[in-house]
Specification:
The protein is α/β, with parallel strands linked by helices. The chain is built from seven helices and 14 strands.
């Protein structure tokens, strides 16, 4: 680990899980600032105190019909960087990748090793609120004024990659967008932006599933709203002022599928 504090944080977590009666399996403990590779069997995702960053894997068993519940619990943590699923059943794969809010998703392969230009990298919520590195929206964030979002970017796009792997990229609505405006004209612009990107608008600041917020008003009104959103538990809620860029209301998703694991790459059969 990088510091003694980081090491202690992990060791304290492992000790706490062991004290709760959870089964903990570890490798040898090397000297120095190391934490041994550790497996911890847990009963629910809610047992995790937050991000446990280190060589610690939490293992959760669940019935097949509990897949959607587990994914909702994972989404509720607020983290959304990477997600992986192993299955040969297309229905299971589609259901899992659709429900997951992670920015980078992997099927029948490891969940690391994103390649620039093949798997644009970046997450959502507590795992990132900006554009994906290596994605088509990155340069737009660096411009003071942007041209209209090209419609081809909004559609699902197949990315070039190595043989035996299928990579795709698409944008999907964030979900529920908070709209706060001092006058009806500004509110109308916000509602148009929300509708155009396939999201759902709300004016309830206490709505528990707000994914982003649009604001138009005075600075005196803006500061309390910013503090209120910052104090919320769970994912970070980005706050946007006019002009509202459509990509701010969309989540980028990169999906990498190991086609060889599902019985081979069908495209190879057409060669020659």
């Amino acid at each position: 680990m990088i510091t003694e504090e980081a090491q202690k944080r992990l060791l304290d977590h492992i000790a706490a899980m062991r004290s709760k009666g959870r089964t903990v399996t570890q490798g040898l403990v090397p000297p120095g600032l190391f934490v041994p590779p550790t497996l911890i069997e847990i009963g629910s995702i809610a047992e995790l105190p937050g991000e446990v960053f280190g060589p610690v894997m939490h293992v959760l068993s669940y019935p097949r019909d509990g897949l959607e519940r587990v994914l909702r619990e994972a989404n509720a943590t607020g983290f959304g960087l990477t997600f992986g699923v192993h299955s040969r059943i297309d229905e299971t794969i589609d259901r899992a990748t659709t429900l997951s809010r992670a920015g980078n998703q992997y099927v029948n392969r490891t969940v690391i090793g994103a390649v620039v230009g093949v798997q644009p990298f970046g997450g959502h919520g507590l795992s990132g609120t900006g554009p994906k590195a290596g994605g088509p929206l990155y340069m737009r964030r660096l411009l003071s004024a942007c041209p209209p979002l090209h419609p081809e970017i909004v559609l699902r796009d197949e990315l070039r990659g190595p043989v035996g792997e299928r990579n795709s990229y698409w944008l999907r609505p964030k979900g529920t967008i908070l709209c706060i405006a001092s006058n009806p004209a500004d509110l109308s612009l916000q509602l148009q932006a929300v509708s155009a990107t396939g999201n759902v608008a709300t004016q309830d600041v206490d709505n528990p599933v707000i994914a982003a917020a649009l604001f138009a008003g005075s600075r005196d009104e803006l500061m309390p709203l910013s503090c209120l959103l910052a104090e919320r538990d769970g994912p970070i809620v980005p706050l946007h002022l006019a002009p509202y860029r459509p990509e701010a209301l969309l989540d980028e998703v990169s999906l990498s599928v190991n086609t060889a694991a599902a019985g081979g790459n069908a495209s190879l059969m057409t060669i020659g």
